[in-house]
Amino acid sequence: MNYKNTPYFKVGRAADLSGRDRVIYRMLEIMPGLLSWSTLLLVIFLSIFAPIAAAYFIIAFDIYWLLKTIYLSIHLRHNWKRLKHNMQTDWQALVSNLKHEHIVHLIILPFYNESIEVVESCLKALVETAYDKKKFAIVLAGEERAGIDARELSKEMKAKYGDKFGYFLTTTHPKDVKGELAGKGSNSTYAIEEARKLVLDKNNIPYEHVIVSVFDVDTVVYTQYFLCVTWHFLTTPEPFKVSFQPVPFYNNNIWQAPALSRVVAGSSTFWQMMQQERPEKLATFSSHSVAFKSLYEVGYWQKNVVSEDSRIFWNLFLARNGDYSVLPISYPVSMDANLAPTFFGTVVQVYKQLRRWTYGVENLPYILFGFIKNPKIPFWTKFKTTLVQIEGFWSLATNPIMIFLLGWLPVILGGYRFNETVLSYNLPILTRNIMIVAMLGLIMSSIIFMAFLPVRPKNKGRFASFSMVLQWVLVPFTIVVFGAIPALDAQTRLMFGKYMGFWVTPKHRK
Amino acid sequence: MNPLSKNRRRAYLLFFSVVFVICVPIFILYAKGYRFDINKAFQISETGGLYINTDQSGISIYVNGEIVRKTSIIQKSVFVQSLKPGTYQISVSKDTFQTWNKTLKVFPEIVTEARSFSLKTEPVLTEITKNLNSGDGSATSSSKVAVKNPEYVLINALFATSTQKALKIRNILVKNESGRLHVFWTGENDSIPNYFCESSVCKLEIIINSDTDVTSFDFFPGRDDLLIIRLENGVYVSEIDDRSPQNMQNIVLGAGYDFRVKDGSEIYLKKDTKIYSVVL
Fold first, then answer.
1. Pairwise CB contact (< 8 Å): A67 & B19
2. Residues of B whose CB is below 8 A from A424
3. Would the CB atoms of A63 and B194 count as touching at under 8 Å?
4. Is the pLDDT score of B263 beyond 90?
5. What CATH architecture does domain B44-115 belong to?
6. Closest by Cβ to A421, choosing from B16, B19, B110
7. A61: buried, middle or exposed (CB in 10 Å: 19+, 13-18, 0-12)?
8. What's the pLDDT band for A482 if we cut at 50, 70, 90?
């Protein structure tokens, strides 16, 4: 039986299963949190009872972290070049050489209670793209639970933009459907199925000609995005075995967002840029594109998970027995950085968004359970993917804490005998120096960040530009408070079965 | 433009893995105090370190006659490492302050710690007058009524109490046994102060070396490693640390002085009927 036809293909959590499967899945849910907490507790335990061993471990870890930073910086630098190259490429000319007229872009825009300004800027950008808009099928996907205003907004947008695209569909995802988690996944799945019936089938559009782009509604596409995706779709040998991942920029409101939010947003962009050069470690994230045929075969996005954007990749990966990957297109889309009316509101919002993103750890039990259940996936693929995924979630939740907080622990907890050793005196000095060297990499971050910034608004002074450079000193703070801690929070919730719901990031623009 | 090729990425990974494997033992050995010895055909030799804490700014710290730090408000201590095992002369000095000298042994992989102290060469003694309207405390003319200075009365009462034969602060017990001070560590071995030990060998008793009998003693304000002692010829501050001859610095020289420490923070001297507060 094909894996996609199994009863556990769209499992959301252990409770969806029964018997032995449920126990296995529950253990897999516990595993990431247990691993992270065990690591942190082990460092504390060693610091008390074996401070010399703890010091060796911390020194080795410091060096590992420094080398990893340099290694990733090389990837970041290469992707920066590639991104610049791709933004300057004339994709129109490249696509013109190919037969592309049959391609239809189905663009799903799920929204909840975002303002008309946010939705409209998304649609405006779509209008301004360098592509034949008659080949665009827009689906503005609202939520019934958002109330009458959302429906009014859809109507207004259809009236204003309906004639600018080949097809313009508005949908309203019904509320309180049993078995669904209120969120983007259930809304997108409802919307795309409506689009299949009302647009594709009605107009006899073959499914294999359709590329789906599912965008957060604050997404503002760069003009050549669809040309770039089309070119990749038409030139890649097996377009139905890949998803197309752009680089998320958070430039829409970057000049209005506070430094803290900018650093977190910038760090997220950099992470995606590094991953673009390491596609075997990449899963789809946020706004991306994928062949309709592939989505249709697996029944679209899961309606019962928070991280539907990455889960769809793993659905396809398991359904195709590991023969599915992400094709990084190194072309940007722009979204909103976190911004609330107050600074404290922004801080809370940043934390919650990071916690939701890092709740992507819910994919780990899904993947590993799939590996247990699907014998058709080659062992080596399972082995590599397992290592990559476990290391990813583990390092996210533990590494910043170990680097910035636990490096001094043996000195504090190691006791008198340890504290009189040269090792004890050198440990904080070494950790500090390695950190300083690693932080030099932030200079490159700052240069890359500035290179992709939109033009400074007239109401912002030169200090605002200076602040865009200076902000990177916040990284040691943000990497712990808005990186490791939300990740640990998410893993702990999963570990204790306190499953998270979908939290919609409010989109506020000043 | 193509992504980084798999081969290039593998090469980077291999390179950094090799760097990691080489660096980890080197960094660990360095952190433990191992150094390349140029004089011994690049053999690796064990070293140790010294940590001198001064508690004061503007003080020069010398190791074997070479200055290693002049302390500042934010850095009042120095950590000197890469020292070959052996004996080192430490000197801590500042103009108008008494010099602190110590000979300390350095052991492999161990940091020998010491805490210096430097009193003014001539501590400032401020007299506390007996009466508020008289500078010398002598009887006033019959036309004036002497008003007693309450501070004088208070401190004088302190001197009226007898001094103790034994004192204990944070597990450090000091006993005066026939004019000799014996200092005992009464706490757990894990928290024994460094001056009771050399390398991993610790003792539990230290004797304060004084030329004459100690008639009274107390802990120096804010320090449990220093004692104020009254000898026949003056009042002194002595360190407990006897890893080399104990430093003894004078507060006041001359016979007939007694002292008291009030509330563990202020030092007072008394000679005959005159009382002085001391600024060190």
1. yes
2. 111
3. no
4. no
5. Sandwich (2.60)
6. B110
7. buried
8. very high
Write out pLDDT tens, residues A233-247.
Answer: 999 999 999 999 999
Which B-chain residues 89-118 have CB contacts (< 8 A) with chain A? 109-111, 113
B53 touches chain A (CB under 8 A): no
Name the minimum distance, in Å, from the CA of A75 to any CA of chain B.
7
Query: Which among B1, B111, B200 has CB closest to A422?
Result: B111
- What's the CA gap between A4 and A20, in Å, rounded? 20
DSSP letter for each residue of A11-57: --SGGGS-HHHHHHHHHHHHHHHHHHHHHHHHHHHHHHH-HHHHHHH
Complex-level ipTM: 0.86
pLDDT at A359 over 80: yes
- Name, in order, each residue with C-beta under 8 angstroms of B221's C-beta and a sequence gap of 6 or more: B261, B264, B265, B266, B267
What are the φ/ψ torsions at residue B66 (nearest 5 degrees)? -105, 130
B20 chain-A contacts, CB cut-off 8 A: 63-64, 67
Residue from A63, A87, A422 to probe the interface with B (highest B Cβ count within 10 Å): A422
For residue A331, the distance in angstroms to the closest alpha carbon of chain B comes to 12
**CB contacts, 8 Å: A413 with chain B:** none
Q: How is A328-397 classified by DSSP, letter by letter? A: EEEEEEE-PPP--SSHHHHHHHHHHHHHHHHGGGGHHHHHHHHHHH-TTS-HHHHHHHHHHHHHHHHHHH
What residues of chain B lie within 8 A of the CB of A438, using their CB? none
Which positions 6-45 of B are in contact with A (Cβ < 8 Å)?
9, 12-13, 16, 19-20, 23-24, 27-28, 30-33
Q: Which CATH architecture has domain A103-353?
A: Alpha-Beta Complex (3.90)
Do residue B28 and residue A415 have CB atoms under 8 angstroms apart? Answer: no
Rounded to two decimals, the pTM is 0.85
